[in-house]
Amino acid sequence: MNVPVSSAGDVGEVLREIRDLGGVQCLPVAAVPSARFVSALRMVANWEAFETLLGGYADEVIVGRDWPVMLRSWEFARRGEARELIALDRSWSPGEAPTLSEASWRVGRRQLSRMRPLSDLRVVQRYLAAVETDRARGWHPLVYGVVLAVYGIPLRQGLMHYAVHSALGWCDALVRQREWVREGGELAVERVCASLPARMPALPNGSLFTA
């Protein structure tokens, strides 16, 4: 059911389109584990402390919370199972303060609405209809999984994109707020993300899904 992505350039364009779902454009509230993380970020005194905090963020949010639900939403979207996708949306919660939760579904709804022209994809249209009638929220990790399925983006590539750009978003937030040199934050992000490929959830067999 996916819309084919015909080249590396096309893949890059799709990934740029969904970049805000990784937390870059919607920082500092959409892709966070809790209000506690935001408070802790304000107390970070240097890039070394940021790296420690980011490691906890990767454990709690990227690996522990977002990747698993992305994979489930991807599976439902691939199979065209709109009812199951909507049920997943209704049962899942980021477990955050109200303002942070609102940021998550606002980002997700914005991306989901961009797929409205794909009128032949029933799973997308039914999910969108459920969101617009408040029968579903449109949480950003779930929508991200749908986007990966719809555009045929390889799972490994898509999941790592989400992780790296979420982490870089937090780095950029500190650069703006503290006027720190970005290079130190980039090195911290690189070190934290280096261990993530080995910690991905089990992916379906076949290069189409795991490249």
Can you give a write-up of this model?
The protein is mainly α. It has a single domain, classed as Urease accessory protein UreF. It is built from ten helices and no strands. The chain is globular. The C terminus is likely disordered.
List the SSEs and their pairings.
Layout: H1 8-17, H2 35-42, H3 47-79, H4 82-91, H5 98-113, H6 122-132, H7 140-150, H8 155-178, H9 182-194, H10 207-210
Helix pairs in contact: 3-4, 3-7, 3-8, 3-9, 4-6, 5-7, 8-9
Give a brief description:
The protein is mostly helical.
Q: Helix count?
A: 10
For the sheet with most strands, the description reads:
none
Q: How much strand content do the residues show?
A: under 5%
Helix/strand-derived class? Answer: mainly alpha
List how many beta strands DSSP finds. Answer: 0
CATH architecture descriptor name: Orthogonal Bundle
| Mean pLDDT level | 81
Instruction: Give the low-pLDDT segments.
Output: 4-11, 18-33, 206-211
CATH class type: Mainly Alpha
* The named CATH superfamily: Urease accessory protein UreF
| Global outline | globular
Features:
single chain, 211 residues, mainly alpha, Urease accessory protein UreF, 10 helices, 66% helix, globular
